[in-house]
Amino acid sequence: MKRPTMADIARRAGVTKAAVSFALNGRPGVSEPTRRRILAIADELGWQPNSAARALSDGRAGAFGLVVDRPARMLGLEPFFMQLISGIQAELSIDGTPLLFTVAEDQQAEIETYRSWWAQRRVDGVFLVDMQVADARVPVLEELGMPTVVIGAPIGNGRLPAVWSDDAAAAHTALQHLAALGHRRVARVCGPAHLRHTEIRSAAIERLAPTLGMECTTVATDYSADEGAAAARSLLTGQDPPTAILFDSDLTAVSGLTAAQALGLRVPGDVSIVGWGDSALCELVHPPLTALSRDVAAHGGHAARLLRTVAAGTRVAHVQDASARLALRGSTGPAPVRVPDAPPAVGGTAATAAAATAPTAD
User: Fold this and answer.
1) Domain HTH lacI-type: where (predicted)?
2) What residue numbers bound the domain in which 38 lies?
3) C-alpha span between 104 and 189 (Å, rounded)
4) Can you list the alpha helix ranges (DSSP code H) found in 146-295?
């Protein structure tokens, strides 16, 4: 069957196309009985508004957009983005607003997508994710006048409103937990250094660790499981290895846990592990992972509500969500007592190494 048109409705109702347009768009020009009859016929025929025609008539596309500058294969494995998108979509589905989603190979390609969408009236606004320390997208979106909501800290955003959570506070929560367990030499496996949230977390840890009597080594990765595992192996087989590792995502934390166990180390007996980000992955491994947890889906929903308001032409303020809380599970415990200058025994345990060097009775 062909898609029903306003002309079909007009023929069935015995009125002009102009009268149908007035009725469907809630404008004056037809009587109330005629309006009700036209709406009933439209519903019976299964008529839906033509988004392209609507964009031409009032400039609205009736959709929002999200572009992610990450490989598609990684997005399928990254719980954070799946939770974020589900929250955005759940909020947008309330009024039937679709989400136009795509991936870009780099930031320039992402910018070209925004220009194309805006010129073609494909979207009424966009969500901006993965803010960078030097971000070329902000001035372009401001120049276009494109309604935008940043999902990230309100730093370097220009006039663009943000929905954010305090990463510095989350860093403090994680480090205090490890310090209370006696950990003094810790490591962090982070994401790409050019991302704004990586910089915020790194600065917070660099500032906080000395106040807690801790030393912290940071290793940057691309957030992939392979690089997370490689970073863990490098840290745990090096000189003076850490007694605890904080991973910047749940995916890398799970891969780090697996790598530590493959080396014969006990978690948390020889090394404690904390994930920054919580998902079902953290509870499916053994031991289950202690993780910084927040409601990412709700975060996405808040961003969607804010973008709807911005697209309507209303000036808004930044929205701060609750900071991450620590979900305590089995992957963290007291810092192991190690023999000075002796790393945990690969293929054994720190306790085994200590026993091997302890004095024996005559």
Assistant:
1) 4-58
2) 6-48
3) 25
4) 167-180, 196-211, 225-236, 250-262, 281-284
Question: Residue 28: which pLDDT band, with cuts at 50, 70 and 90?
Answer: confident
Whole-angstrom Cα distance, residue 191 to residue 281?
18
CB within 8 A of 312, min separation 6: which ones? Answer: none
Identity at 22, one-letter amino acid code:
F
Q: Which structure tokens are listed for 297? A: 């889906």
Q: Do 207 and 338 sit in the same domain of this protein?
A: yes
* pLDDT for position 131: 96
| Per-residue pLDDT, 343 | 57
- Using only the alpha carbons of the chain, give its radius of gyration: 27
Tell me how many domains the chain contains: 3
3-state secondary structure (DSSP) of residue 189: strand
Give the closest residue to 224 by CA, choosing from 339, 70, 46, 330. 70
pLDDT at 256 over 90: yes
- Does residue 338 sit in the same domain as residue 238? yes
CA–CA dist 309, 216 (Å, integer): 42
Tens of pLDDT along 308-346?
999 999 999 999 999 999 999 999 999 998 766 555 655
CA 321/CA 340 separation, integer angstroms: 44
How many Cβ atoms are within 10 Å of 356's Cβ, its own excluded?
11
Residues 196 and 340 placed together within one structural domain of the fold: yes
SS3 170: helix
Q: What is the pTM of this model?
A: 0.79
Q: Distance between alpha carbon 211 and the CA centroid of its chain, in Å?
A: 30
